[in-house]
């Protein structure tokens, strides 16, 4: 075979116009925009396909991994990442024991979460038998950062370790604390970074590779923000630190190298990959404005954390599927380290099993799926490149808006950040309620027989949001919550009823329509944990009524075709309305008013607000009592 032969020469080139004509023909008159163009919560219109010509106006794609502006990541020889697990430091001996145990099970990055002050002997015992040069060490200690860091550095010096081999981070993030609590570590930090001077001076000569400022972008993710908002607000927060450092006489280039971003990763697979590429691109643009001597300092260190916002207490094992997808997005996007939260994290204290699963998910992706082998595996995808560009453009516009308001701190004090997130969260809440955004096992395809313990803590995600100290409140904080909370509260209220409400499917008439609507209705009411009584179909209305009498139920859902409702709905309502709530599956426009005049009030259909409808029905007493 001639090596120069074009293997695809027998396939003539097809122009975009020809593709579009074929698509329009296949749509048979259906609206192209409505059917095939996806409009995201970020206000980005995503086409059904992309071609090379869609990249013509994007001028930053002709780079290699490890090259400025680092769109394609910092890595050049592999796509390896740190497998991170958090350990709460309550009992020092137990924390040390757990650390040593999980280091033997694949973890390469430890994060110690300090909930109280410790002393010199305790920090020594905490790191007993742990080789600080072989793993990444992360100290999660908030306002305790100066003291904990000092103790850690003293321990490093006493062990006489090569300081250049110590890698890790401390989560010093006063702006992040303000964002979720509305208050400061102390007022001086709100007004400037002069209080942080001692931290940087001490660390500079002792642990030169340690990241000292953590940008908690994952908080925006867990408040229901859009991807563009998470990017823009995270960048704005980081730029605020740089601006304050510059004003206070810091070495800005040194500060840049000490910043680490912690980002939440949701289940929007390709968008999350694009997010990581976009934020690296924009960060390099920001750093460039400070005119560094070496552009390589704009390499962005990103720690990814699987989102809490989309995790559920019902059907909890689905959380494993969500975190696997999210982990893949993060890894393909080129993160430095990754925390997969255990599947039960959002409603209980994780146990040995759930923590093991979380670790093994990363190990499988690394050792069996080989995601650590290929640098920038998403390269060359027209789709991802266009998503990246769209996200970068949207996020950059929002970033500039914040800067025009005086930067992150002023925008937050004005309530701009909170307002933006609240508007997006409200839209997403409505999408969840209407099942436009799916939480499998919660608002779609739930197991109606599933129950959860009354002691399950549904507000674990809100444990940071303790009672606000109004006296020191700078501004209202953003609200951390989970998308499934309201559905879960509804399910729990059902569990607490003296009897579980039963829903009777009154299936009659057209076979296809009655089956489709009964399936829809069963799924609809299962979201509230009601017991579903399905039926194959009744030959007569009388047989259906007789069956109902034998299966006394709280709700009757009439399932048939629109044309048949005109003849059967009123008859069923008249005979059963005194014994049950009557619901019509569907929304027959032509006869809707006449049905309402008969007394039928409840209709369920694909445009229904599932959550509000179920709450309304749940509130009808004494039928459901």
Tell me briefly what this model is.
The chain has helices at residues 16-27, 32-36, 92-103, 120-126, 145-158, 174-181, 187-191, 197-204, 218-221, 227-247, 252-257, 269-288, 318-333, 352-367, 382-404, 408-413, 416-433, 485-495, 511-526, 541-550, 562-576, 592-597, 610-618; strands spanning 38-39, 45-46, 82-89, 109-114, 136-140, 167-172, 210-216, 259-265, 301-306, 337-339, 502-507, 531-533, 555-559, 581-585, 602-604. With 625 residues, the chain is α/β, with parallel strands linked by helices.
Polypeptide structure, described:
The protein is of the alpha/beta class and 625 residues long. It is globular, with a radius of gyration of 28 Å. It has helices at residues 16-27, 32-36, 92-103, 120-126, 145-158, 174-181, 187-191, 197-204, 218-221, 227-247, 252-257, 269-288, 318-333, 352-367, 382-404, 408-413, 416-433, 485-495, 511-526, 541-550, 562-576, 592-597, 610-618; strands at 38-39, 45-46, 82-89, 109-114, 136-140, 167-172, 210-216, 259-265, 301-306, 337-339, 502-507, 531-533, 555-559, 581-585, 602-604. The protein contains 23 helices and 15 strands. The termini are far apart. The longest helix is centred in the middle third of the chain and has 23 residues, at 382-404. It folds into three domains: 16-55, no CATH class; 82-412, Methylmalonyl-CoA mutase (TIM Barrel, Alpha-Beta Barrel), CATH 3.20.20; 499-618, Rossmann fold (3-Layer(aba) Sandwich). The model has no long low-confidence stretch (mean pLDDT 92). The strands form three sheets. An eight-stranded parallel barrel has the order 3-4-5-6-7-8-9-10, surrounded by seven helices. A five-stranded parallel β-sheet has the order 12-11-13-14-15, sandwiched between helices. Strand 4, helix 4 (120-126) and strand 5 (136-140) form a beta-alpha-beta unit.
């Amino acid at each position: 075979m001639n090596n120069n032969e074009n293997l695809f020469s027998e396939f003539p080139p097809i122009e975009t116009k020809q593709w579009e004509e074929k698509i329009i023909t296949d749509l048979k008159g259906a609206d192209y925009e409505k059917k095939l163009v996806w409009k995201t919560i970020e206000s980005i219109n995503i086409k059904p396909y992309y071609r090379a010509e869609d990249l013509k106006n994007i001028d930053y794609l002709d780079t290699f991994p490890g090259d400025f502006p680092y769109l394609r990541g910092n890595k050049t020889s592999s796509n390896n990442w740190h497998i991170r697990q958090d350990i709460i430091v309550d009992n020092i001996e137990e924390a040390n024991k757990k650390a040593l145990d999980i280091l033997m099970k694949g973890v390469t990055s430890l994060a110690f979460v300090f909930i109280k002050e410790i002393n010199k002997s305790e920090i020594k015992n905490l790191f007993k038998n742990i080789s600080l040069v072989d793993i990444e060490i992360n100290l999660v200690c908030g306002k305790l950062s100066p003291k904990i860091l000092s103790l850690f550095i003293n321990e490093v010096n006493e062990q006489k370790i090569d300081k250049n081999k110590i890698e890790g981070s401390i989560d010093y993030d006063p702006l992040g604390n303000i964002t979720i609590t509305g208050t400061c570590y102390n007022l001086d930090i709100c007004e400037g970074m002069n209080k942080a001077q001692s931290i940087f001076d001490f660390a500079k000569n002792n642990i030169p590779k340690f990241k000292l400022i953590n940008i908690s972008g994952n908080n925006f993710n867990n408040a229901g923000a859009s991807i563009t908002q998470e990017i823009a607000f995270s960048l704005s927060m980081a730029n605020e630190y740089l601006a304050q450092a510059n004003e206070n006489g810091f070495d800005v280039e040194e500060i840049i190298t000490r910043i680490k971003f912690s980002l939440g990763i949701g289940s929007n697979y390709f968008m999350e990959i694009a997010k990581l590429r976009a934020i690296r691109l924009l960060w390099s643009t920001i750093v460039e404005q400070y005119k560094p001597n070496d552009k390589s300092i704009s390499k962005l260190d990103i720690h990814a954390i699987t989102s809490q916002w989309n995790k559920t207490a019902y059907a909890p094992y689905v959380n494993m599927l969500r975190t696997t997808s999210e982990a893949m997005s993060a890894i393909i996007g080129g993160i430095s380290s990754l925390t997969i939260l255990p599947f039960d994290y959002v409603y209980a204290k994780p146990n040995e099993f759930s923590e093991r699963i979380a670790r093994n998910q990363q190990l499988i992706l690394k050792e069996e799926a080989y995601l650590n082998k290929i640098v920038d595996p998403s390269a060359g995808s027209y789709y991802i490149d266009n998503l990246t560009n769209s996200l970068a453009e949207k996020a950059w516009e929002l970033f500039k808006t914040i800067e025009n308001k005086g930067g992150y701190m002023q925008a937050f004090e004005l309530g701009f950040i909170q307002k933006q997130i609240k508007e997006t969260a409200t839209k997403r809440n409505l999408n969840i309620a209407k099942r436009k955004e799916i939480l499998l096992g919660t608002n779609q395809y739930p197991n109606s027989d599933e129950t959860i313990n009354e002691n399950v803590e549904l507000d674990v995600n809100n444990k940071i949001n303790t009672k606000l100290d109004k006296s020191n409140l700078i501004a209202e904080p953003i609200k951390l919550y989970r998308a499934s909370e309201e559905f879960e509260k509804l399910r729990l209220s059902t569990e607490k009823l003296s009897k579980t409400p039963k829903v009777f499917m009154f299936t009659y008439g057209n076979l296809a329509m009655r089956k489709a609507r009964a399936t829809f209705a069963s799924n609809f009411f299962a979201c509230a944990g009601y017991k579903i009584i399905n039926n194959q179909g009744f030959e007569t209305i009388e047989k259906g009524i007789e069956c109902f009498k034998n299966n006394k139920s709280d709700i009757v859902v009439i399932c048939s075709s629109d044309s048949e409702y005109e003849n059967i709905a009123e008859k069923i309502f008249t005979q059963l309305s005194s014994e049950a709530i009557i619901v019509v599956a569907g929304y027959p426009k032509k006869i809707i008013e006449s049905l309402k005049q008969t007394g039928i009030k409840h209709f369920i259909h694909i445009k229904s607000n599932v959550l509000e409808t179920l709450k309304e029905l749940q509130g009808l007493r004494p039928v459901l009592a």
